[in-house]
Amino acid sequence: GPGQAEMYAGLQELGVANGEDLKETLTNCTEPLKAIEQFQTENGVLLPSLQYALPFLDLHGTPRLEFHQSVFDELREKLLERVSAIALEGKVEERYKKLEDLLEKSFSLVKMPSIQPVVMCVMKHLPKVPEKKLKLVMADKDLYKACAVEVKRQIWQDNQALFGDEVSPLLKQYILEKENILFSNDISFLQNFFSPSPKTRRQGEVVQKLTQMIGKNVKLYDMVLQFLRTLFLRTRNVHYCTLRAELLMSLHDLEISEICTVDPCHKFTWCLDACIREKFVDNKRARELQGFLDGVKKGQEQVLGDLSMILCDPFAINTLALSTIRHLQDLVGQDTLPRESPDLLLLLRMLSLGQGAWDMIDSQVFKEPKMEAELITRFLPLLMSFVVDDHTFTVDQKLPSEEKGPIPYPSTIPEAFTKFLQENRIACEIGLYYILHITKQRNKNAFLRLLPALVETFSDLAFSDIFLHLLTGNLTLLSEEFALEEFCTSLFDGFFLTACSRKENVHRHVLRLLLHLHHKVAPAKLESLQKALEPTKQSGEAVKELYNQFSEKLELRKPSPAEVTETPSMELPLPTVPTPASR
């Protein structure tokens, strides 16, 4: 076939006879057997000792092809070893000259499956494969596929579109993996989205593949960062910010200084990574992080865009928010105001920078967002007053009650709190983390008191996947409360169901929660929830699938008709059943 002809065409260029030559010889000769013998002599392995060995192999029925093939395989192995050795020996210019000559000689045979590995090996060891050869490889799907990643990098760095095609499915996979964790059916307060350590996350398939594709190539690294920025702008999906940090730290783990030293965020990210590992920003690291932020020089403000993206990573926000809540509790104990705590102010500064990432990259105006004074002078003291309310209530419960009867838990929310959650992004983020904190403490009173403030929040943050994922996990700690009508009405009717019909993701999270806790919910409530949560025509597959699982669980719980009839109380002595007489 034409494929064969093309495959072996390169041999003629090198003065090696091929099948076409043999055909020609045989067509134009008088004595075919003599011609074949002559062709074998001229084109065989030129070793005098073989003259006698080959007839001996013939006697044993070993086909000549098999013999030549094994000699060939042996030689190819030797050649591959030699190429790898050349790549490491002698002066740099000389060794590359040798490899280039070898490539020049062998490239015409690149289509021969038996020779291809050698050609690929030569290219792999060349830091700069000649442009013409790269173009030929690029134009041929099979050759491109067979190339070592070292050669592909050389192709990619001048072909952003081609590199984009390779990276794109990996980025899609990454986002999907994140969403699968957030919507996972395993709900637990012990294991959640933020449980894996940064080091573990960086071992993920996508991060490893991208790290491998980039190698030490700064140009490719920059391209990936550009893709991530563009996608973050287009989708507002914060998981791209996580990948931005993970990729840098993965290169850091491998000590790829070629890239780490030129990424201006490297030291900041490294320090923040240690905080994320501890889920807390300690004082020493806080000083270090502050030093980086204060050290941004005039004319280099663009680095703030990158730093803000690193701080917008949900793992960073989670760490900053948890640290903020811890600081607030400490301040209550020390009787100190938020504005008097430099550590707290730094946490807020970093939260603002992270939360402002999208706007900054979108507007290309690189300056730190202004911190609203009210956040520090009014909102945080308000949160601290909630902490005080809890202390007071707990102490009151323990005091011997006099005639006045027990003191009820404060049930109203200051209007200012609700307003802050609606209008101020940072206040909203910290407020939500405070609610997660009291849920984790199993503080039902505080939870029910603040829950109504979550119905309307800044940019619907209380209905975001990360918050709902954490909230559903923490609610498993209050599972006993689900038997109470009042608790369920507040949680479901008062919060979840207000958004289910307009937000598919909320619908999914409620169903996840109920799949996990349905056996704790009062039967009457369960029935009304089953009606309220029924999917509509517009519902996606995920909601329908969850709803079916939920309904199946409820079917299994319904008592069978036989059980419904009055069963005699077990206190009565059971009637004795006569045993059949043994025959």
SSE blueprint and pairings:
Elements: H1 2-13, H2 19-27, H3 32-43, H4 50-59, H5 64-86, H6 92-106, H7 116-124, H8 131-139, H9 141-146, H10 149-156, H11 160-182, H12 198-201, H13 205-214, H14 218-235, H15 239-253, H16 257-260, H17 266-278, H18 283-294, H19 303-312, H20 314-334, H21 342-355, H22 357-363, H23 373-398, H24 415-423, H25 425-440, H26 444-450, H27 465-475, H28 485-500, H29 504-517, H30 523-532, H31 541-557, H32 561-564
What does this structure look like?
The protein has 583 residues and is mostly helical. The chain folds into three domains: 44-127, no CATH class; 160-374, no CATH class; 376-398 and 411-534 and 542-550, Serine Threonine Protein Phosphatase 5, Tetratricopeptide repeat (Alpha Horseshoe). It is 68% helix and 0% strand. It has 32 helices and no strands. The protein has helices at residues 2-13, 19-27, 32-43, 50-59, 64-86, 92-106, 116-124, 131-139, 141-146, 149-156, 160-182, 198-201, 205-214, 218-235, 239-253, 257-260, 266-278, 283-294, 303-312, 314-334, 342-355, 357-363, 373-398, 415-423, 425-440, 444-450, 465-475, 485-500, 504-517, 523-532, 541-557, 561-564. Helix 17 (266-278) packs antiparallel against helix 18 (283-294), helix 20 packs antiparallel against helix 21 and helix 20 (314-334) packs across helix 25. The protein is elongated, with a radius of gyration of 36 Å. It starts with a helix and ends in a 19-residue tail after the last helix. The mean pLDDT is 86.
